[in-house]
Amino acid sequence: MREFSQRRKIRRIMYSPLALIILFLILFFVVKGFFGVYQKYSFSKDELLKSESELQLLKDKKEKIDHKIQNLETETGIEQEIRSKFDVAKEGERLIVIVEDEKEEIVVEEKGVFGNFFTTIKGWFQ
After folding, report:
1. CA distance 99 to 45
2. What burial letters (b/e) apply to 27-66, b meaning 16+ CB within 10 Å?
3. What is the DSSP string of the chain?
4. d(CA 26, CA 73)
5. Residues 86-110: pLDDT tens digits?
6. How far apart are CA 20 and CA 13, in angstroms?
7. What pTM was estimated for this model as a whole?
């Protein structure tokens, strides 16, 4: 009988509104903590992906620059770079520069209705 009455007291304390409120508060703070950790994990994962893609772009850029440097260490590479930047030729070579003709722009003056009328009349008397 004593055991039964002690169990009843324990259940009454466990299911009391104060105990339930405390349990819900503990549950709330635990869930809130897990949610904060998940948000940080998600943000870190996104930042890691961005950093890895940026790292790959920088590696590609470094590779291109290294290739350009290797090309400039040779005599032909230097010559190609000079020819591409400046219009130069070796002795005995000729340089042909193609210049496009400028197209004439046709300017149409709008004189309005009276301007065209007076121009037509003026043309009759000349």
Report:
1. 55
2. eeeeeeeeeeeeeeeeeeeeeeeeeeeeeeeeeeeeeeee
3. -HHHHHHHHHHHHHTSHHHHHHHHHHHHHHHHHHHHHHHHHHHHHHHHHHHHHHHHHHHHHHHHHHHHHHHHTSHHHHHHHHHHHS----TT-------PPPPPPPP----HHHHHHHHHHHHHT-
4. 69
5. 877 777 777 677 788 777 666 555 5
6. 9
7. 0.48
